[in-house]
């Protein structure tokens, strides 16, 4: 019992330390003050697509409406062997002259393969990748390109938000993505971005020319390219006001497959780039950010196991007492005196762990508020935050445990799910 208590306190201490670090790392920068571009470089926006006939038109339209000189960017759609009408729908846009829309079709090879195909066809000095089920806000590109005036910056990430927010799973992911918006800005402030999401991330084309394209044998090519950029000593920036909206999985099985792929990819790429754990060479990325990512997984799993063990022990003890007293005492359950209720509440509220939970809720709420302000999110998130607070820790632990069992126990092959999830 003492060991469990000490472990819980250790988890709480670690969580508070990292939460304070994130808050302090976020505040010094004026959020929303993206650097104004000194010029408008030519940009190639690559949209890899696989069976996206229902949304590809909306995605292309969102890019056509960008507040950016129309003669300064092109749109390249790469149909990666779709079996539906994706190519036909996208092809309708090729009649547009400014910006130029190009549509190509290739055999299915995966999202990294489609991106590399698009890069070879691109004319721009800046490459932007955009998932086919994601939509860009009008000013997103203009807010991002100014960061490239710094020659050390090799990539810029956007503010990735959730488009569909109706169901429980969608709202849970919405709150998660909002914390991601906050954290990605923190990581950019301390030069520690280690994932570059697919929806509307920008790169210098010269990086691909010098160090190769996306890893086509990697299930999370966005993590691999970010760690590769970091390993070469370049910077990855973030524009928290460049809002991008993506369609998230609304079925549990699709969400589970996505998370298995994400988490396995993170582990695989972290091992591949384990040299990034050097604090002297890579600063906060090696000293705090990557180690804390692994510790957060361990602590989430341990905390969930402790919670469920305590829950089952309590249920077992109640059943045992009930059997001992007998069914005749059933009516007495509903005659508990008020003072007993007060005593139980007092013991519950004076438990130090309750204090930790309250502080944890405060930090989560603060992160989401900061992200909402920075990303200029106007939609109400009350129910999303409630779902996130009550269930996310358990989902997070479950996804990680499932990934380890699926890959390392059952030795199953991890691959892309439907619609590039």
Structure commentary:
It is a single chain. With 421 residues, the protein is α/β, with parallel strands linked by helices. It has one domain (1-314, 334-421): Alpha-Beta Complex (Spore Coat Polysaccharide Biosynthesis Protein SpsA, Chain A), CATH 3.90.550. The protein is built from 14 helices and eight strands. The protein has helices spanning 2-26, 56-64, 86-91, 111-121, 140-145, 168-189, 205-211, 221-231, 252-272, 279-282, 284-325, 338-349, 352-375, 382-409; strands at 43-49, 73-80, 100-106, 126-129, 134-136, 153-162, 201-204, 235-246. The chain has an eight-stranded mixed sheet with strand order 3-2-1-4-7-6-8-5, with helices on both faces. Helix 1 runs antiparallel to helix 11 (284-325) and helix 6 crosses helix 13 (352-375). The chain is globular and about 80 Å long. 38% of the residues are buried. The mean pLDDT is 88.
Main attributes of the structure:
421 residues; alpha/beta; Spore Coat Polysaccharide Biosynthesis Protein SpsA, Chain A; 8-stranded mixed sheet; 14 helices
């Amino acid at each position: 019992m003492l060991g469990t208590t000490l472990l819980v306190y250790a988890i709480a201490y670690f969580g508070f330390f990292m939460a304070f670090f994130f808050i302090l790392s976020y505040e010094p920068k004026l959020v929303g003050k993206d650097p104004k571009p000194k010029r408008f470089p030519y940009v190639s926006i690559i949209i890899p697509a696989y069976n996206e006939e229902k949304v590809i038109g909306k995605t292309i339209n969102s890019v056509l409406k960008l507040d950016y000189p129309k003669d300064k960017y092109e749109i390249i759609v790469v149909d990666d062997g779709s079996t539906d009408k994706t190519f036909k729908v996208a092809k309708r846009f090729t009649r547009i002259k400014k910006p130029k829309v190009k549509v190509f079709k290739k055999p299915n090879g995966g999202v990294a393969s489609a991106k590399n195909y698009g890069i070879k066809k691109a004319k721009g000095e800046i490459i932007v990748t955009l998932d086919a089920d994601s939509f860009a806000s009008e000013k997103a590109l203009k807010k991002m390109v100014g960061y490239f005036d710094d020659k050390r910056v090799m990539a810029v990430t956007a503010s990735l938000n959730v488009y569909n927010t109706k169901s429980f799973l969608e709202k849970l992911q919405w709150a998660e993505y909002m914390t991601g918006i906050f954290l990605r800005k923190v990581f950019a402030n301390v030069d520690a971005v280690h994932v570059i999401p697919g929806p509307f991330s920008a790169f210098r084309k010269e990086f691909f020319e010098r160090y190769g394209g996306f890893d086509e044998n990697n299930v999370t090519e966005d993590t691999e390219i970010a760690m590769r950029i970091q390993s070469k000593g370049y910077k990855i920036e973030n524009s928290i006001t460049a809002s991008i909206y993506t369609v998230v999985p609304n079925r549990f099985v699709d969400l589970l497959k996505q998370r298995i792929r994400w988490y396995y990819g993170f582990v695989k790429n972290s091992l591949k780039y384990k040299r990034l754990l050097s604090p002297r060479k890579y600063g906060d990325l090696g000293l705090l950010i990557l180690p804390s990512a692994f510790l957060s997984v361990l602590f989430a799993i341990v905390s969930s196991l402790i919670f469920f063990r305590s829950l089952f022990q309590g249920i077992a003890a109640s059943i045992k007492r009930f059997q001992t007293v007998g069914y005749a005492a059933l009516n007495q359950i509903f005659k508990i005196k008020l003072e007993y209720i007060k005593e139980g509440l007092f013991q519950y509220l004076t438990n130090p762990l309750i204090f930790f939970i309250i502080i944890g809720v405060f930090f989560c709420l603060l992160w989401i508020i900061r992200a909402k302000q920075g990303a200029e999110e106007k939609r109400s998130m009350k129910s999303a935050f409630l779902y996130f607070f009550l269930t996310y820790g358990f989902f997070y632990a479950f996804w990680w445990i499932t990934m380890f069992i699926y890959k390392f126990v059952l030795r199953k092959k991890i691959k892309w799910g439907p619609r590039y999830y």
